[in-house]
Amino acid sequence: MLNADISQYLHVSESTVRYWLERYEITGDVEVIQKPGRNRSTTGKQDMVIQSMVAQHPTESTGQIAARLSNKGINVSKTTLRRRFKEAGILSMKPTSKPLLTSGHIKKKI
What we know:
Elements: H1 3-10, H2 14-27, H3 44-56, H4 62-71, H5 78-88, H6 103-109
Helix pairs in contact: 1-2, 4-5
């Protein structure tokens, strides 16, 4: 099969097909190689601690959670916390900014 046929079938460029075929000939494998980049500032264990902290205190801000974590010896920024929340699928929760209706308010409303 020609590279052009493969590229049309896979909807990728012909140069991409050549790249992967050459890589397979050289390494005998097409596994994705670890890409370069900065190391994570937290370990997997610390990520679990962060998730459990959020589960225990879901309405606290990232600054408050960062302060709690620093007491435990885990120093992370608020930005890092937001990234870990996003990775874990944790949605942010804002505490209510105004008081809820009291029973007196409800009676007046009815």
